[in-house]
């Protein structure tokens, strides 16, 4: 039996948990956008996915700005998830009366920017070797969380017919973003 003598810091714990929430939500969002645009055509699905990845990269590189770098990691994760939740709220509102895929663009851009900011904090280098020793365990948790969120986002639209199914699925993604933001905020206040 191998024991780890080093206990992870609060920042490492919040980064790990934020990464779980981030990749689960991002995969689920891409799946929902793909399912949502099946009715409108292949070009709209590709366009929205590329737009989400561009917004993710924009948030990632925008988080290098000095204003954000001076804040603690938990605060930056909190802010990134709040921005992502605002985008998810726009996606939720757009999915209720959707007749055209163009109405999804503002929500995609804002949520992708917030997710990119979180991705920046999650992937920052840290001095501890604790997380590197648990890399296989972390990969397993990350994969299982991603598969679970993807399965939930695939089951909801299949079980509930019509446009309201996407409203429920985007509501789950909004809740996931708010839960991650709340966790980061509580962890920041406790440390």
Question: What is shown here, in short?
Answer:
The chain has helices spanning 10-36, 42-62, 66-69, 73-96, 105-122, 130-133, 135-159, 164-190. With 191 residues, the protein is mainly α.
Write up this protein.
This protein has helices spanning 10-36, 42-62, 66-69, 73-96, 105-122, 130-133, 135-159, 164-190. It has 191 residues and is an all-alpha fold. It has one domain (10-124, 148-190): Growth Hormone, Chain: A (Up-down Bundle). The chain is globular and about 50 Å long. The two termini are 31 Å apart.
Key phrases:
single chain, 191 residues, mainly alpha, Growth Hormone, Chain: A
CATH topology grouping? Growth Hormone, Chain: A
What is the second-level CATH architecture? Up-down Bundle
Radius of gyration: 17 Å
Unreliable segments of 5+ consecutive residues: 127-131
Q: N- to C-terminal separation?
A: 31 Å
CATH class: Mainly Alpha
Topology:
Elements: H1 10-36, H2 42-62, H3 66-69, H4 73-96, H5 105-122, H6 130-133, H7 135-159, H8 164-190
């Amino acid at each position: 039996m191998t024991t780890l003598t080093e206990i992870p810091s609060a920042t490492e714990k919040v980064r790990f948990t934020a990464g779980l929430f981030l990749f689960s939500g991002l995969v689920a969002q891409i799946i929902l956008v793909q399912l949502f645009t099946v009715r409108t055509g292949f070009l709209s699905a590709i366009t929205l996915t590329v737009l989400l990845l561009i917004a993710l990269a924009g948030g990632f590189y925008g988080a290098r700005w000095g204003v954000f770098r001076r804040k603690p990691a938990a605060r930056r994760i909190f802010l990134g998830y709040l921005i992502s939740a605002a985008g998810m709220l726009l996606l939720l509102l757009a999915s209720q009366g959707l007749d055209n895929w163009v109405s999804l663009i503002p929500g995609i851009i804002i949520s992708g920017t917030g997710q990119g900011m979180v991705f920046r904090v999650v992937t920052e280098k840290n001095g501890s070797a604790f997380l590197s020793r648990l890399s296989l365990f972390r990969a397993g948790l990350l994969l299982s969380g991603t598969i679970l969120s993807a399965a939930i986002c695939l089951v909801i639209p299949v079980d509930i017919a019509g446009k309201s199914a996407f409203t429920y699925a985007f509501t789950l993604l909004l809740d996931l973003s708010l839960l991650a933001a709340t966790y980061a905020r509580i962890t920041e206040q406790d440390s």
